[in-house]
Input
Amino acid sequence: MKFPMISEGLPFVDTRQMIEVDRAMIEDYHIDLIQMMENAGRNLAHLARQRFLKGDPRGQKVVVLAGTGGNGGGALAGARRLHNYGADVRVFLTKADNDFAPVPGHQLDTLRRMNVPVDLSEKLENAGSADLIIDGIIGYSLRGEPRGSAATLIQWANSRSVPILALDAPSGLDTTTGTVYEPAIRATATMTLALPKAGLLSDQGLLQVGELYLADISVPPELYASPALNIPVGPIFAASDIVRVR
Output
């Protein structure tokens, strides 16, 4: 399946603007974080299935790397769907369950109730082979170089000869400036959310992003048109919940 290409006239946002989008979604439109996370996870699993798993995930091995915030929560929602599709899913976390924010923690709890294998980064030797790695380690909240277990997961992913699908941004890439920190995921493809982030389109960023897709998380056009943002956005997702940017 090919996704529609859309790039001409497509606006982009920086980190500050994306924070405002998330705030307005929850506070002004009452579209809760768990709804956005479900949309992200559904689209992530669909893109993984169509682009990397030959349209049929059954029996294929997917390793999901997840941090404790919203980016990790979206990856965990995607992991749940891929498991439901029949994929052999293993999840590795940057931190223990009690360090997760409440909504990503809810996604993690559901995976555990489904008996999907979940381990900390220290157990990467249990990952085995993989047909696809999903990067949900760090999203647009990155502040400086990845450290500790986040860095361990990034380095492990980059050392595999396996396609990497990054959620929202390759971990280690600053979504506003395009600065590539060390280490940073070298993605085969990136599925960003709502609107493209400015840093993904920088000269440095493009080298980390790979193919760039954009997925709908149900942001109302009226939100983008608000005085706080003033971004004209048309019906980007009229033909598909996922479009290709480059």
User: Anything to note?
Assistant: The longest strand covers residues 61-66.
